[in-house]
Amino acid sequence: MAINIVEALQKRLGLRSVEKIDVNATHQSETMHPEKTDHAAQAAVAAVLVALYRFGKSDEGAASLAGTRPGNCLQTIFDNKADFAVERVASYADISQEEARRLMTTAADEAVALVHGNVGNECSPAQIKAYLASQRHNILVYLPAELEMGKILDDTALDDRTNKMEGPVSSFMHFIENLMAPGDRTRTEAFRRDDEFFGRKNS
Question: What pLDDT, in 10s, does the model give residues 144-161?
Fold first, then answer.
């Protein structure tokens, strides 16, 4: 069974304060244990991993990850959206954009290293796609909706509260979602710019 990439990344970064999102919280932006949560780490880890999942679900993205090694992975997985993501993480965590970028850059490099370590250094794009698909629910239960990563990554389903629900029935449904999650779009399609959303951010 594949390791849980969120738990593995927390351990690799020495973090003990990234918590699952409380599905009963307004807009699902707060964690189940807010008193224990490091919101900077929460936002950085969740944002990076959901971008890694989204990027690696396309054929082109998975092929790129197969040949990628740690070093500026943040730009790779977010493509032209890294600045918007950094802004959202900084706002959510109430930290500077410089600090947010530092945290996210470290998390991105370590996350890509984890993928290679779990799949194998000679991994194929197909293996990367399969592994990241299996991690979809593991990642989304930690993703604060306030980050609006679904809008940034052009996949609003990522912010759906049902992704954060757990239990026997929910777990089965998430298993089906993982199998059915789209993975054949090109990188251009996967990162299509939402002019209305980004125009609002720049206004």
Answer: 999 999 999 999 888 766
Write out pLDDT tens, residues 110-120.
999 999 988 88
Q: CA angle, corner 28, sides to 156 and 167, nearest 5? A: 95
Helix-helix angle 39-56:125-134, to 10 degrees? 140
For residue 5, give the 3-state DSSP assignment. Answer: helix
User: CA-to-CA distance for 185 and 150, rounded, in angstroms?
Assistant: 16
Phi first, then psi, for residue 88 (nearest 5°) are: -70, -40
CB 112 within 8 A of CB 15: no
C-beta of residue 31 within 8 angstroms of C-beta of residue 43:
no
Q: Residue 203: helix, strand or coil by DSSP?
A: coil
Tokens for 189?
Answer: 């399609």
Cα 41 to Cα 98, 133, 134, 187: the distances in Å are: 14, 23, 23, 27
- Domain segments of the chain as ranges: 5-194
The pTM of the whole model exceeds 0.90: no
Residue whose entry in the numeric block shows the structure tokens 């189940």 = 32
